């Protein structure tokens, strides 16, 4: 063998017999691969600033998504964030970015070389969410709800059962707004009522639009008779427009149609102490969190026996 290789394992491999050389080469690369994996794991847990003391509570925020968040800090997630900031004795700061466009990647996980992350906490993620985010313990559980005016085409209806018991000729004339690919569409289809559905997009490119406008602009105006939408949106807008006399009926999950979901917060992987801090804040302030949610009209439901870790198909 004429090749000269200097240094460590490479020199041994170069002068070994062919079969031994192949075995040693495989062993060398295995050791090298293991070293890289271990180094990556250590870096993930000890990356600079991962769990250093915070100078502010920096949330990742959608600037136009009531009742959750907005640029004026008027959403219930804004109020909960302020509660946490007060507990931590830190100023509250927000990095605004529309939730429609790869929100996690462009907020919590966005980092340019030499710069810091722009924010450290996402205020609402469904339990079971992937997407490279470490999800905390949940802080509330809600459900989709049917919303309609008590003074229009569904006057006198006070339950989902009464709605389904309407005469077929009356049901056939109704227009029910549903978010595309939401459980509401499955619920209507299961009962042979899919033709009643008026579809709305789950995510709209225009950052000035949000799901609440289905209630504001279409339901209240009488363009549709009812809408089945995520409960926090339903409850908030029903309270916001008392003159519209909107009734909110929470939907119950059933076989093959899941309406209720647990909502948690999200931090980056590797920030174990920060995640624990947030979970401690949730546990310590759960009664205050519930009070804020109730103030905003969020339908709160108890977890089913045995627990559940499913996640909804849409972020909100």
Q: In one word, what is the shape?
A: elongated
Mean pLDDT: 84
Output the CATH class name of the largest domain.
Alpha Beta
CATH architecture of the largest domain: 3-Layer(aba) Sandwich
Number of strands: 12
Q: Which range does the strand content fall in?
A: 15-25%
Briefly note the CATH topology name of the largest domain.
D-Maltodextrin-Binding Protein, domain 2
Order of helices and strands: HHEEEHEHEEEHHEHEHEHEEHH
End-to-end gap: 66 Å
Structure description:
The N and C termini lie far apart (66 Å). Residues 1-48 and 309-316 have low confidence and may be disordered. The longest helix has 29 residues, at 18-46. 35% of the residues lie in helices and 18% in strands. With 316 residues, the chain is α/β, with parallel strands linked by helices. Strands 1, 4, 5, 6, 7, 8, 9, 10, 11 and 12 form a ten-stranded mixed beta sheet that branches. A two-stranded antiparallel ribbon has the order 2-3.
